Amino acid sequence: MSAGSEMVLDEAELATLRESIADVLTSECDSRAVHAWLDRENDLGSSLWRQATDLGWLGLSLPEADGGLGLGARGLQLLNAELGAHAAPGGFIPTLCVAQWLSHVSGFDQREALLGAVVSGEAAFAVPALLEEAKPLAQSADGGTVSGSLEVLGGVPEAAGTTYVVVPVASGWAIVHVDGVAARLDPIEAWDLTRNLSRLECSNAPVVALIPDGDGKAGALLGSYVALALAADSVGAAKGIALRTIEYMKERFQFDRPIASFQALRHRAADLFIKIATQESLLEQAVQCLDNGSPDADMWARLAKAGASEAFVFVAADCIQLHGGVGHTWEYDPHIYIKRARLNEALLGSNRALREAAMGLLNQALDEGRTTTELNA
Amino acid sequence: MILEHKDDLKAFREAVRTWTRETAPPERAHEWQRAKGPELVEVQKWWMDERRKVGLATPHWPVEYGGAGLGLEHQIIMEDEFARGHSPGSEMFVISLNHVPATLIPHGTEAQKKTYLPAVAAGALWCQGFSEPAAGSDLAGLKTRAVLDDDHYVVNGQKIWSTNSMYASQCLLLVRTDPAVKKHQGITYLIMDMDTPGVEVRPIRKSTGGSNFGEIFLTDVRIPVANRIGEENTGWMVSQSTLASERGVLSFNYAERDMMFLVDYYAKARHERAAWLDDPELQREFMTLFGELQSLRQQIRVLLREPADAPTWSMLPSLIKVAKTTLNNRIHSFRIRAAGLSSQFIDPAWRAPMYEYLESFGMTISGGSNEIMRNLIAERGLGMPRG
Q1: What gap in Å lies between CA B223 and CA B157, rounded to an integer?
Q2: Which candidate from B266, B323, B384 shows the least CB-CB separation from A274?
Q3: What is the CATH number assigned to the segment(s) B249-381?
Q4: pLDDT grade, residue A125 (50/70/90)?
Q5: A52 three-state secondary structure
């Protein structure tokens, strides 16, 4: 399944777009706002979702024909890196990824309605939390309904409109409308309060659309988008908490000096950025492959998610320690990031499984005579 | 003629590729891959001679000094094609072809440029006398003393880690001319002929048993004042041009070769049904390393795209230096464990895992130790204050 997309902005325009997203998040979703959100003292989740709709973020990646900006995987990377940097709450990853996926798969007839509803902020999507390992739900004899339960990422209470879930079935992927009766989402209380996890309960829930997937390629593409978005979130968030930690270290004095001046700590800070830079470039590889429609995109996206989420866990954990005692308080930021990191690490499929899957894809590529590593000089 | 195509990058690449294949056929790669010590020196000299015949030895030099004035994009194409063609390396000429012109062109006298640049272009091998036993990371603390005696400097001291010094004809030498001022302000930059009386080179035996660098002992060595680059006591400033000369092209070549090697290594393992392929832990580790090597190639491409006159100092070169050297060490550590006991048998094969592993410990030190790189990242990249 090829997912090539048109690139409509040049590098300078992309940088401007990235800055504009960062500016909005810096003013609307700073540390204070996120802490208030954790304590249920504001409606950051729904106000951000509204902003995202108004500013066109939900359609950044979608093809222009579907009302988007046509930025493809690059758009997913750019937006999710900024959302991660600010630990923004909301179900952006499942909604953005499913929409992107629906714009590239074929064989179903609800495309226009579903994508239009995403761009206008009226629809949100949820995906199996462990997409790579998801077992098919039971279908009725005529295929018109599905039954069973499934843990999902998404199901956005802050979105005003409709929630749909992508559900694995024997013949492909069913889109189910969460109507609260035949299909219900029960929130799961989770450590990361910036994301929504739910249990989907379906009892003869009507199938809105069916994406056929005889060869597994459609599912693999959805997995690639989720992998890429999680990797981007992880890289952005790791950078975000590392920079905040360094700022803290410049202000925190011990022995009459800022602790940022101690070499033992400066070297650790440098190591965080060495790790982050490596994962940022691996993510770049995945972005390029997805946007070029490369047959190796599925492999690179999975390697990127595994590497980036692991690095994020490492960085966030070290940032707790670099903060000293306040690092493990509710009041400071590191706990927000370590929880997000641990969830990112677990989502989609274990990093062990993703790397094994990547090796399978590498073997397949080599058997087909591809090197998978070709880059322009 | 290859240089005829310089205005058409595609044709230029095609010409370099064809010439490389004809001159150093990949089927013969084992000849230069296996070479070590003096044999390796011969191979690289031969290769540089061949490059010279078609104008590919110093094409990046300015036209007035015998180059073709080709840009970075041509250098990248050349290095890319040399790597893809499994051609011999040319790392022993890095100082001659990059550091010497980068230092002489902005800071040398006309006489120095006329004497040395054509000689370097014709194949003269230079070395660098910067580090000393007590001045490694603290390079500016160097103590090799030069005292003016009429129209000569008389030099006494010791240099170390000087790559290929045993084969070199000239040396870029940093000496202390004023011990009374702050350490950065009392250094002078000289050109030293390696056959001057009082110069003695002793090869240093590395942990692999081989030698590619040496110690240089200097006893009452007389160096003409005419061989000074820049003014007296401005050597530190001049040396910054030397150290900034190689903007990632060499790293690019290495990373390209490393990836080709890793891909071939894996293909061979599959072909031979290597035992480690059945070990899921090693499978995952391999994929991690494979991913990080590709990531390094991406990072180097970003570095090459950075403008030479970027107004702000970038931490990218330091990030890349640490990442590539530690990754190299991890890749060969992996290969040792994947091979098991047989990795411990002496094996003359190209890139034997234990050999490469031992070599990799030199890389995390040379060219600025990784600890110095971390200082640079923290200070200049992240704005963390000095202790």
Answers
A1: 14
A2: B323
A3: 1.20.140.10
A4: very high
A5: helix
What's the number of CA atoms in the CB half-sphere (13 Å) around residue A238?
Answer: 32
**What is the C-alpha to C-alpha distance for residues B79 and B87, in angstroms, rounded to an integer?**
10
Task: Quote the Cα angle for B77-B80-B85, to 5°.
Answer: 120
- Residue A246: pLDDT band by 50, 70, 90 thresholds? very high
* Residues facing B214 on adjacent strands: B162, B203
Q: Do A266 and B378 touch (CB under 8 A)?
A: yes
| A6: confidence class by pLDDT, cuts 50, 70, 90 | low
CA dihedral for A79, A81, B309, B91, sign (positive or negative) = negative
In chain A, the domains with their CATH numbers are: 217-367 (1.20.140.10)
Pinpoint the alpha helices (H) of B272-366: 280-305, 316-339, 353-363
User: Over chain B, what is the mean pLDDT?
Assistant: 93
Q: What is the mean pLDDT of residues A176-182?
A: 94
End-to-end CA distance of chain B: 57
Residue of chain B with shortest Cα separation from A274? B319
Comma-separated ranges of CATH 2.40.110.10 domains in chain B: 126-238
- Residue B123's nearest CA partner among B176, B57, B63, B79 is B57
Best interface-test mutation with B: which of A252, A266, A287, A299 has the largest number of B CBs within 10 A?
Answer: A266
User: Token pair for residue B124?
Assistant: 């003269």
DSSP code at position A169: E
Buried b (16+ CB within 10 A) or exposed e, B357-381: bbbbbbbbeebbbbebbbbbbbbeb
The CATH code that applies to domain B126-238 is 2.40.110.10
* pLDDT of B33: 86
- What is the SS3 assignment for B1? coil
Summarised one tens digit per residue, pLDDT across range A318-337 is 999 999 999 999 999 999 99
**Helices assigned H by DSSP within A70-216:** 72-85, 92-102, 111-119
Dihedral pair phi/psi, residue B247, rounded to 5°: -20, 45
Going by their DSSP bridges, the two strands A123-128 and A162-169 should be labelled as parallel
Average pLDDT of chain A?
A: 94
In whole angstroms, what is the distance from residue B356 CA to residue B335 CA? 10
Mutation to test the A interface, candidates B287, B303, B321, most A Cβ within 10 Å: B287
Please indicate if any CB of chain B lies within 8 Å of the CB of A314: no
Rounded to an integer, what distance in angstroms lies between the CA atom of residue A225 and that of residue A97?
5
